[in-house]
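For reproducibility, we list the full input for the magnesium ion complex.
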Amino acid sequence: MKSSEIRQAFLDYFNKQNHEVVESSSLIPGNDPTVMFTVAGMVQFKDCFLGKEKRSYTRATTSQKCVRAGGKHNDLENVGFTARHHTFFEMLGNFSFGDYFKEDAIRFAWEFLTSKEWLNIPTEKLMVTVYHDDNEAYELWNKKMGVAEDRIIRIGDKGEKYNSDNFWAMGDTGPCGPCTEIFYDHGPEVRGGPPGSPEEDGDRFIEIWNLVFMQYNRTADGVMEPLPKPSVDTGMGLERIAAVIQNVHSNYEIDLFQHLLNAAAKLLGQTDTTQASLRVIADHIRSCAFMISDGITPSNEGRGYVLRRIIRRAALHGHKLGGEEPFFHKLVAALVDVMGEAYPDLAKNQELIERALLKEEEQFAKTLDQGVKIFDQAVEEMSGTEIPGETVFKLYDTYGFPLDLTAMVARDRGLTIDEAGFDVAMNEQRERARAASKFDVDLTAKVTLDKATEFTGYDHLDGQSTVV
Ligand code: ATP
Ligand code: MG
Ligand code: MG
Ligand code: MG
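The corresponding predicted structure, in tokenized form, follows.
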């Protein structure tokens, strides 16, 4: 089955179970300052869970565009390192707004995954987790679905006892609840341990589907208010389930990514499509193109700065592979080939996306080469393994290297960066600007312009600490 057929099968299955097929919403959450991007299928239904909004249906199903590259849900640093994390992915979901609860949610998921008429996955390849004290879910898996006890794992809140978390929350506030997750075992040839174990982060046991039993609304002061009615929110990554169905061990080996990887390899004169840099580029073209298609433009703050940082990362990976000309924007065509049908806006906005990417690539190209030289020079001159804060600041301030970009280049070479030193240099610059502003208004204006690359964080958006 192709990815597009899996997406359709999912929607068909839930439509048969009386779910309304609803379109994906924008990557920009509608009128909701508590999350930076749409991070899950439930985001567009938040008010339905809270009982603030009534719709003509109580069951819905979607294939939702998601971005996890900023705020509470941020997988940017995982991309290229795990087989399963992307900045952009599609989340297949089914939702109950006070309609069915645990029993049906579990039954639907199990039927879709394992029955012959649908995905037909052998049950012995699957494992499930439940929230540590959720005996009801445990019994449903064990008694009703026939999952053996040694394949059901209890997991609580992340901490000393558990390596991962079985309580899902949209953000610091909002709907949340205990969950049960379904894992697929990619086999002993892949490194990694079962859910909850210290080796969980490997790629052997991959979480494919999360079923959340939405029961609470977490308020700003941390109080857990019960929702008007217990509800269900589920999410399954299309790319992860496609890897299972297509019998490959990495999301990057599925049909959709192969097309993008081949296109990127061709543009950059590469033959090995398993290289991490190419994977990062193939990942990043999706988030960048969809963000622009949904109205985000590269800028120095908020979502626009996340977009800028991702484009610059892609440009840097291209540079690393010897790319001298802007190449990234040329990948939009390949993306439209594989996703334009499911997302007509993407095809419609192709030209606009290409132009925005090219502009950003050209702008960064002016300082990229020079920045890399500065970095190399600093590495040559230093004695330890930490890039001095002043260099990191210079790269940021003069060469347009966002902090996380420099950290990425450093990590690539087994080095770290002096973040505290960077903060000091940044504060000194702020002080200088402030002092100057006391004496000369015009000078202030100039300083402000010079500092156009400064990003002061998005605290106001999602309560994260300042990100520069
Ligand atoms: P993981 O533990 O692997 O990071 P998660 O528990 O953070 O996943 P959820 O928030 O439960 O993920 O999201 C629901 C589903 O969406 C996951 O089960 C997975 O299939 C998919 N998913 C989550 N994050 C990503 C990502 N960054 N890239 C691709 N798919 C993802
Ligand atoms: Mg995660
Ligand atoms: Mg998880
Ligand atoms: Mg999960």
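Residues 164, 207 surround magnesium ion (ligand 3) (CB under 6 Å). Residues 88 and 287 are 5 Å apart (CA to CA). Both points were considered when choosing residues for closer inspection.
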